[in-house]
Sequence to fold (291 residues):
Amino acid sequence: MIVLDGKKTAIALKEEIKLTVDKRINDGKKIPHLAAVLVGNDGASLTYVGSKVRSCEQIGIKSTLIHLEDTISENELLQKITQLNNDDSLDGYIVQLPLPKHINEEKILLAIDPRKDVDGFHPSNFGRMALEMDSFIPATPYGIMELLKRYKIETSGKHCVVIGRSHIVGRPISILMSQKGPYGNATVTLAHSRTENIEVLTRSADIIVSALGIPEFLKADMVKEDVVIIDVGITRVPDTSHPKGYVIKGDVAYEEVARKAYAITPVPGGVGPMTIAMLLKNTLLACERRD
Fold:
């Protein structure tokens, strides 16, 4: 059984990006610059944005954290987005989700300049990705494809079941897995919370990408031998015996499913680290496209 080690792969990827950034500096070119907009003080968002900022520092990418109060109005946030769109020092920026309930997330994401949309959430980038044109691919699906590539997982002609239809993971990875290319050409079934008899689909799958958000949803009796498992789920499950008061669980019952799998991503340490690494790669791409 192969453990698809996202942490190890992300470190290697960051080192490659750092070499490119160092060369840009030596050649007198612009240093890539990423900004992160954080509204409010959500604990998970603070942790996630903090890790992005530290990753930028590690590889020589400039980073700016724009921390705004959760009382900011929608119009004030839109004004800030306009400022970032017009800031030539910035190559890309992200707006950390979720936003406060009084702010329309769709309106904010639509206001982002697609050329700086390194999260790949803007409809322009999503559409270009679907048409196999140059675009910013959402970081998590991008990271999944990179893991498959680096571990040389065969996908052509395989049956891939994607569980979850979010615009951030499920839908884009279903598109990417079915596209022409060395790590595409799969036959994809997109399942979700309303899919009946989902275990019939998962038992026939050669590859399963689970982004459902239900801890340990996928059990050993729901998969066949030698399946490839990509677990995108990450949920804090209360655990009084743990120093933090919780443990992190994926969508997959790891211990029992791993015994049947050909390859599997752990949680944590699988898809998560790859998401941040691919965000940095998108930032470098944004800078290169502006050269």
Remarks:
- The mean pLDDT is 95.
- The first strand starts at residue 2 and ends at 3.
- The domain at 139-272 is CATH 3.40.50.720 (Rossmann fold).
- Residues 6-26 form the longest helix (21 residues).
